[in-house]
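DM from R.C. (forwarded with permission)

"hey, sorry to bug you on a friday — could you get me a structure for this? deadline for the figure draft is monday and I only need the backbone to look sensible"
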Amino acid sequence: MANNGHQYLLLRSGRYYYYRRKPFEVTEALGPGFVRISLKTTDLKTALSRRDIVHRDIEQYWHSIIKFGHQDSARTQYDSAVKIAQSMGFHYQPADVIARELPTPELLARLEKIEQTGIEKRAVVAALAGGVAPPAITMTEAFDEFVRLTRDWLTDKSDEQIRRWQNPRKKAVKNWSDVTGNPELARITRSDALKFRDWWWDRIENEQMTVNSANKDFGHIHQIFEKVNEGLQLGLDDPLARLRFREKKKNARPPYSPEYITQRILKPGALDTLHPECRALIMIIMNTGAGPAELAGMIEDDIILDADIPHFHIRENSERSLKTMYRPRTIPLAGVAFDAFKELVPKGFIDYRNKPTQLSANTNRHLTDNDLRESDDHSVYSLRHSFQDALTKAEAPDRIQADLMGHKFHRPKYGDGASLEQKYRWIKKVAY
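My reply, with the result:
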């Protein structure tokens, strides 16, 4: 719907709704009138994105009614009931919940809507009276639902970012299914959850797995369950809460010492056998503090080498979005970082575009194979900490450090921050 402007958008009391008259072809099944679905936002850009998703779902639903009527699978009938209820301003609720928990005013409103629409409209009666059983869905099937329900979370992500976001959740679902036998969501018990937790503890004790890895699995499984339970309005109790193990505070990666950088990493020939983009990564991080994901996501337009002060932009572009609101920034180039951009990656990281994991892994492998780690705890990311240490030792102002590193500035923020010239002066002081 990108070319249809604000079609089907309704603004009421500062909030946006999808609002549209039902086509004649579906009024026999659904009754006449309008569809009005809250987009749950006050922001126009967000509303337009969500409008497109709702529109696509509504169109598919209406087409299925026109083509097949309502004699369809149990899952389709349930989806239809949820959408009919939403289109009439209600959440779908099972009949027992309606009878047991709904306040009297909402119960009366549902009955009034049924009467207005016509008691002979069986689909409407089923939707508003909770007459359709929830679908039997396993965690494996729930993952596909989760992907559908979270499309609006990923609208500004690149394909590679989406893949990296989905993969750990897929892995968590596979682990869960292997351990528990993949029961239906409605049949998951606390015993299933604790069985999964015990399985992870055995791996931590016997396979050198980390508490952090276990907690990530717990978080992903719980997130999928909650989102699908809410999105499909299943009304299930939550058996997956409070599974996390207590984590010890992690030590940050140590910085490389200036002497090690000068005498070992930048020693002539030390990086000659490394892929040019991996070599560039090392040289750029040590003089700018930019992270692998930030650098791998750049495009040619982000790199300005012919200006009075050569620089590059870390910002959202056609290839990626950024991690937090504090990360977008412009960083001047000096020393080996400028040389790396000019000679190795003038158009960005082409081979590793949006592949920061592979970029870091291959770079770290070279550091290990060539004895270029100052300790076992050092990695290419340690060079980012080295850069911040250098700024601190040079007594760069906190605002300059925050603007260069992409950190939040923990004081009231006035103005636009440091100028390119100001940042350049400090970069030159610490550059290799």
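R.C.: lifesaver. The two ends are 51 Å apart (CA to CA).
me: no worries. The chain has a mean pLDDT of 87.
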